[in-house]
Amino acid sequence: MLPFARVSIIGMGLIGSSLARAVRAHMPTVRLTATDADPAVRERVRDLNLVDDVADSAGAAVVDADLVVLAVPLGAFAAVGAEIAPELASGAVVSDVGSAKQIVIDALGPLMPPGVHLIPAHPVAGTERSGPDAGFPTLFEGRWCILTPPEGADSAAVARLSEFWARVGSRVEVMEPRHHDLVLAVTSHIPHLIAYSIVGTAADLEGVTRGEVIKYSAGGFRDFTRIAASDPTMWRDVFLTNKDAVLEVLGRVSEDIAALQRAIRWGEGDALFQRFSSSRDIRRAIIDAGQDTADPDFGRHH
Amino acid sequence: MLPFARVSIIGMGLIGSSLARAVRAHMPTVRLTATDADPAVRERVRDLNLVDDVADSAGAAVVDADLVVLAVPLGAFAAVGAEIAPELASGAVVSDVGSAKQIVIDALGPLMPPGVHLIPAHPVAGTERSGPDAGFPTLFEGRWCILTPPEGADSAAVARLSEFWARVGSRVEVMEPRHHDLVLAVTSHIPHLIAYSIVGTAADLEGVTRGEVIKYSAGGFRDFTRIAASDPTMWRDVFLTNKDAVLEVLGRVSEDIAALQRAIRWGEGDALFQRFSSSRDIRRAIIDAGQDTADPDFGRHH
Question: Are A235 and B208 a contacting pair at CB < 8 A?
């Protein structure tokens, strides 16, 4: 018994198009509808034959859907929410894939008609690529999907959405939205912010040419450029919508960098060694938890 | 005609043992001698049959060598230099693989007997693994090796060392030592320092458990843990010996992070978008320059 029969995906970038492919692979009898604000993306989704119907607007896409998934940048949620609200079927579940979660409840909650269940979700998965051609059906396999139902949410709706994500290969966790936003600030938002920052610093540094930065990037810098190649619109919106948690963690990051800076200035080798020694345990735990490859250098070819 | 006939490698970790394997692969008639301060490593090098002779001390290892390569942490250079100096053959080239270069000239230069050529070198290559089992013969292929000859260095010795590194697959560049130290601070030392710092911050953050950090690391954090799993002794010594350049760049890094922090606090979306948009060009240039894989997510399996 499928958790949903008619699924509508709003936004067909990396995540939306991966979800469409995964639904096709694991729940082939689901009727899939999709749309995208960009006509060229809609055309491409038609050419790739990713869904049953490509609608020309978000409102048209959600009619009759029993699951609607917003896969657009967080800054577009309020507008999309207003557009789809009048068209939503009673009993429908409205969800999303956004990287911040309290904002989804704040932006969409008040717009939802009675009888519609808002259950925000965040599949912790992705690559640095964007657009419908970047998606692939196995993106969610073995990755966590975090559901953040608002207080008083319908437990049957939560269970159906959990089952949906499990069907596409995800491991599902339920979390309080503000706690999600703090945890993901640490494990995702701050790493992206720092990577964007360092790449910008290196590109503009006096005394070192951009050509030198590129040539000698294999010393470590190149790793940061992958994350910093992620979609700038999506990430702008993440930082604007998860401001409090990001600023809180960033304060700690700056303190810790300053402490290392001081240890270097004063030649405190033991403090540096101790700090650097503890990281290997975390790396090992991540590999043991199935969240990264055990191959050296991410399995890059040498 | 081989650039060197008798090569001695002091230190058989990731880099030293990779170099031994690469010499065997590309210059099989070279007589290879190696040693390591750790008796267990020497034993392992014998078992793996990586070289012709395993010497029990650095002094014994360099007798008759026409190329000596120090592949030990930078903090050990002065002691190793003092030990090998009386044993060096006239005309020998003494080099290394250290990540900072002015310090090598300062530490080894005064110890070298007349007729011995000190030509420091830095192959910009590696993985997060350590030890003789982590090495592999293709590590240097397509990677840059930077030579930083001191003023007045013998040009024939520089040419022979260039040829040596070219034979193991490297692209060779000659650079002024202090400029090397600034460039590598940007492309390697600061990325490692920031990665170590962020991993430490995440591990100790109140309100987020270590288990949560591990579970949801696929959001970006896991990338930082790879670099932060690198050898702590090696990296302690890099920061202690390239202090000036690292602190200079770190000052700029902190300023740039503060600017992003401010943009987030004041909701300056356009500034964030503009900053994030420029990184993709650098990523593309690194891939075009053959310094990283074009596969999404470093080619990790999904």
Answer: no
